[in-house]
Amino acid sequence: MEGAARRAIPVAGLSTVDIDFAAASAAVTVGSVRVTFIGVRHHSPACARLVRDTVRALRPAHVLIEGPAEMNDRLGELLLAHQLPIAVFTSYRDTETRHMSWAPLCDYSPEWLALTEGRDAGAQVRFIDLPAWHRAFEGHENRYADAERRYDRAVERLCREFAVDNIDALWDHLFELGDDATLGERLSTYFELVRGDESTTPGDLAREQYMAEWIHAAVAGTEGPADIVVVTGGFHRPALIRRLLEFGAQPVESTAPTPEWPAVPSFPGDGAGGSFLVPFSFQRLDAFAGYQSGMPSPAYYQQLWEYGPDRAADSVTHAVVRRLRERGQPVSTASLIGSRTLTLGLSRLRGHESPSRTDVLDGLAGTLITEALDRPLPWTGRGQLRPGTDPVVVEMVAALSGTTIGRLHEATPHPPLVHDAERELARYGIPEKGRHQIDLALPDGLHASRLLHRLRVLGIPGYERSSGPAIGRAPEPIEVWTVTPSVLRLPSLIEAGSLGASCAEAAAAQLGERFTAAGPDTGALGAVLFDATLCGLTELTDHIIDSVRGLVGSAGDPVGLGRLLAVTLGLWRYDRLFGTSASPVLAALTDVTVLRLLWLVEGLRGGPAPADDGLLQALVAVRDAALHAEAVLTVTRTDLVGVFRRCTAADRPPALRGAAVGVVAVLAPHDTVDVVRTVRSAGAPEILGDFLAGLFAVAREQLLEESGNEPDSTYDDENDGAATPVLSLLDELVGRYGETDFLGALPALRLAFAWFPPRERARIAERLLEARGLTGSGSSLLRLRADAEVLARARQAELRVDQLMQQYRLTDAKPEGAEHV
């Protein structure tokens, strides 16, 4: 472009087309109408200043903006006195597809400045891009995602040329901290390089064709001399200029003064959806949180927009220090002085008159982080923070993200779901905040519970249940909810409105998506079934049950089947709460699930292996089905006990053997099973803990019960007895272990005893004290001053030191248990 800043091109039927390639706004004159193109990076303060200054200087007849054209009839709504950031949220849904898209706007968004400055200048303001439900946006959640990220060869070359880590540092270096007098020329050159000669996607071509139609209509419908300003992503700018040149090269009939705007595409097929304004937040705008805009640290750029680079740099330091101190991280004055010195040095070294965002972050990191990092500093790369990022770095990034959340003007229209939720919450007396108790036996209570569960399923924040019906537990007729005010409630409801007009309809759609995503996973399907029941969605529950019945016969995962059985058994048993009324369909599903589980469990083989909690929960569900639903099972108790008796063989995994012993003891208490002998046979350190995990999972009440009474059929975790024979045997077995064996067995033993609730563990501890003639509280033995695993590792290290000392004859004592090492 050098040496060819301006060119005059003859145009058939019109005066010359004059193009200024040296200006970012690349003014193209068609007839007596001058079209000024401003290519921007979305959410860039520098680009926002350029848009503001251009519109104020030109006072154009039209301002055309990359944005959803379906909002043109609702610009008055968009220009209400909102507190930014906000977003245009668009959704589309049909029988096969659900698409959602956001077009965020903040104080320093160039598109927002084009809207507000264009309105103040008396221009006709129009969005000119396709609706987000158009196929051109397929796979894109954010309209303003940086297009140049898909064409990054030029960007990578520029990063190498300017010795910066990534596009964010490059952008700050070239534009945010540069001279505004030459900003236009730098932007023009940059976006020409980014677009280059690369072939673009069909989606971009469709969008550019549509935006060009709007520009052509504005030119043809405007009497000159007049100005038109076009604000689009910089990637699209070169293509739109070329399209206008092609348009201007043909004779054009002026239709001034009223442009004939292109039609807005309608929903395809039988789809439904629409666009609504939604509050947005700086956190959602942040590239470090996954947003595709490419501009990280929105709180920093807000300061840059309002106060300039020097005050923005100071605000970064203050925000980081304040956040770290609030979280108990000491930051000394000396560290701040060192950070400031390092920041200024880096700034000068990198050619910045004022410190950039990365200058400040690097200066802070250089003084506040004193240990080697396992991960690169996140601002040297792109995207979300990686697991394992240093906590100080995490807080630094969070401080620059900010906590600002937008707020809509009270006159802003909302989707029907918002109003339905408000009506239903008021109807059933759900408070705006505080503790709320619901009696499920009352009709209004049941309806209130279903409403709250629908909101929970939709992910609406501020509604948390602390007690009530749960999978695999005895029925609780009382639910307790805690309602907490949340600024995120309204945006969540607006976005959930894409699923349906009412809470019931939206929850059914959400659960329908979960049902589809679960596929053949019977455990996930069981969870969906339980939620659908709690939400009172009878039609959906019937559909799920019908579908699941066809999957059980071929299911190969006992863990998933166990979760499904726990759900179906609970719904069948507690029909008065859930309205399932001893459903024969649920009874049949319970039966086939038990049969399939028995077949799978009997086929399990294997040696020592860690206990699988999921498998043990499945065996608990089988036990409960045999105890409480024997009338609907086609397998007899004798045959069921026979399966588990065969599973006590030595070729089964230890946890399965222990569970099998427990099931036999529960279902056939008068049988001649010798539990003590079986436990003794599993006393080796490497298998005892896993064996006990299975045993305790299904039969802890019987086996640690002092009186030897019949098992309690409710399994409500309330018994606190401890059986002398089994407890004494375990005490004997563990007491024989050397220190090395004990430390090796300890993790599995802890997991096994975790099947006992705290009160029962305390009772067992008291029995152990009594057996040794000691007194004291069993609870005191359960409370350690340090984590048990830390203590175990420390003891292993001590033992190893003792062994090394003996090996090198530094002591005469032989460490206990050394012979086992």
Structure in words:
- The chain is α+β, with helices and mostly antiparallel strands and 821 residues long.
- Helix content is 51%, strand content 10%.
- It is built from 33 helices and 13 strands.
- The strands form three sheets. A seven-stranded mixed sheet has the order 1-2-3-4-9-5-8, with helices on both faces. It has a three-stranded antiparallel sheet with strand order 7-6-10, covered by helices on one side. A three-stranded antiparallel sheet has the order 11-13-12, covered by helices on one side.
- β2 (17-20) and β3 form a beta hairpin.
- α19 (522-534) packs parallel to α21.
- It is globular and about 105 Å long.
- The chain starts with 5 loop residues before the first strand and ends in a 14-residue tail after the last helix.
Oligomer: single chain
Structural class: alpha+beta
What is the CA–CA distance across the termini?
77 Å
Segments where pLDDT lies below 50 for 5+ residues? 1-25, 706-723, 817-821
Residue-averaged pLDDT: 82
Strand content: 5-15%
Overall strand count: 13
> Over the alpha carbons, how many angstroms does the gyration radius reach?
35 Å
Shape: globular
Largest sheet: 7 strands, mixed
Q: Strands of the largest sheet, in order across it?
A: 1-2-3-4-9-5-8
Compact overview of the structure:
The chain contains 33 helices and 13 strands. The chain has 821 residues and is an alpha+beta fold.
Question: What is the topology?
Answer:
Elements lengths: L5 E4 L7 E4 L7 E3 L2 E8 L4 H14 L3 E7 L6 H4 L7 E8 L4 E8 L4 H11 L3 E6 L23 H10 L4 H10 L6 H13 L6 H19 L5 E8 L3 H12 L23 E8 L2 H4 L12 H10 L1 H18 L6 H17 L7 H12 L22 H11 L14 H12 L6 E6 L3 H15 L5 E5 L10 E6 L5 H8 L6 H16 L3 H13 L3 H15 L5 H16 L1 H4 L5 H19 L10 H16 L8 H10 L7 H14 L7 H7 L3 H19 L20 H13 L2 H15 L4 H14 L6 H5 L5 H20 L14
Helix pairs in contact: 1-3, 7-8, 10-11, 11-13, 11-14, 12-13, 16-18, 18-19, 19-20, 19-21, 20-23, 21-23, 21-24, 23-24, 24-26, 24-28, 25-26, 26-28, 27-29, 28-30, 29-31, 30-33
